[in-house]
Amino acid sequence: MAEIFKVLVLNQISPLGLARLPAERYRIGKDLAQPDAVMLRSADMHKLDIAASVRAIGRAGAGTNNIPVTAMSARGVPVFNAPGANANAVKELVLAGMIIAARKLRDALSFVAALDPADPEMEKKVEDGKKAYAGIELRGHTLGIVGLGKIGCLVADAAIKLGMDVTGYDPEITVDSAWRLPAQVKRAGSVGEVLRNSDFVSLHVPLLEATRMLINADNVGQMKPEAVLLNFSREGVVDDAAVLSALDAEKLACFVCDFPGPRSIRHRKVVCLPHLGASTAEAEENCAVMVANQLRDYLEHGNIQNAVNFPNLRMDRESRYRVGIANANVPNMLGQISTAMGRAGLNIHNMSNKAQGDIAYTLVDVDSQVPAETIASIAAIDGVLAVRYLPLGD
């Protein structure tokens, strides 16, 4: 009989995503004991006591800062996300941010909102006041992009179509991203080169130790005094205090961000949005569908795609009997796993193994049913983090 999986949801998840988990095999709810998996968006899992039964976590979005990834890695639990699923939504918001800054729309809207509709002089005041909000056009100006993943590539393509010159920097650009990058993008050799030569700078990098405070007091001064900095990436990649100081010193024209802070929300040269990057119906649906599909493929077949802490590994089924093993990336693991299976008289039909950093992951298809004692003996191998037996149900 096929195993029934329990999925705990910590936020409102798009019904289109949840529909990818068929009711005959999945129980989904907000108050489930001993869940097999967790789906969430922005809920803070650092504050939760995560049940030992949890085998996988799926974040319906890109960032996983709200999930204790390191602790889950130590338990052999993959943490899935949805890279690129919200890329178009973020791209459109970046374009809106550039236009808001270029045309001084925030201040212009505030000016109009303050007008008295009963004032007979209102039309004259509009005509007299509008000159204070004259802006610039994007066409002919240079956009610098730091981070050339899917979002960065989409922003670059859209900016080029608007008539902008685009320069980009990404020291770890993937092959897929390189293929997506428009040929017109000029490749910069450093973040500093992007800052010095751009009229607008948009950040599209994950929050890692290497990117924390990427824009800081040491380099923000390299930007043009009339430049606009946009951060729709992660809050920690910008030193807000350094940027506010640059704005106050007239060394930077405007800062547009998706992360309001206590010092920035009322600053006259800062445009703060309430973390709207992925807040479209389409993006939420795309993220939920992608993560649900990934969770299902892992729970039922052990395949891994887009886990931030595990290698990608997909192996087509060649047997009803499959074992998935997460372990420390150390020598002789495959030998010990094979020995344990051989000792039980199991014939390995197919095996695949991949590693990412300190974690390795193995899928093994065998020709006959795997005894519980064999699963226990593999789990007892020093360095094995988790073992899952994945037989196909009747």
Q: What is the level 1 CATH name of the largest domain?
A: Alpha Beta
Q: What's the name of the CATH homologous superfamily of the largest domain?
A: NAD(P)-binding Rossmann-like Domain
User: Alpha-carbon distance between the termini?
Assistant: 5 Å
Number of domains: 3
Class inferred from helices and paired strands: alpha/beta
- Which architecture of the largest domain does the CATH hierarchy give at level 2? 3-Layer(aba) Sandwich
- Please estimate the helix content: 25-40%
Number of helix segments?
A: 12
Number of strands: 16
Strand content: 15-25%
Mean pLDDT: 95
The arrangement of helices and strands along the chain is EHEEEHEHHHEHEHEHEEHEEHEHEEHE
- Main sheet overview: 7 strands, parallel
Mind telling me the C-alpha Rg? 26 Å
Task: Give, in spatial order, the strands making up the sheet with the most strands.
Answer: 8-7-6-9-10-11-12
CATH topology of the largest domain: Rossmann fold
Overall shape: it is: elongated
As residue ranges, the low-confidence spans are: none
What would a concise description of this structure say?
With 394 residues, the chain is α/β, with parallel strands linked by helices. It has helices at residues 15-18, 69-74, 87-102, 105-113, 122-129, 150-161, 175-180, 191-197, 240-248, 281-301, 333-343, 372-379, and strands at 5-9, 26-29, 37-40, 56-59, 79-80, 142-146, 165-169, 186-187, 200-203, 228-231, 254-257, 270-272, 321-328, 348-356, 359-366, 384-389. It folds into 3 domains: 1-86 and 280-310, Rossmann fold; 87-272, NAD(P)-binding Rossmann-like Domain (Rossmann fold, 3-Layer(aba) Sandwich); 311-394, ACT domain (Alpha-Beta Plaits).
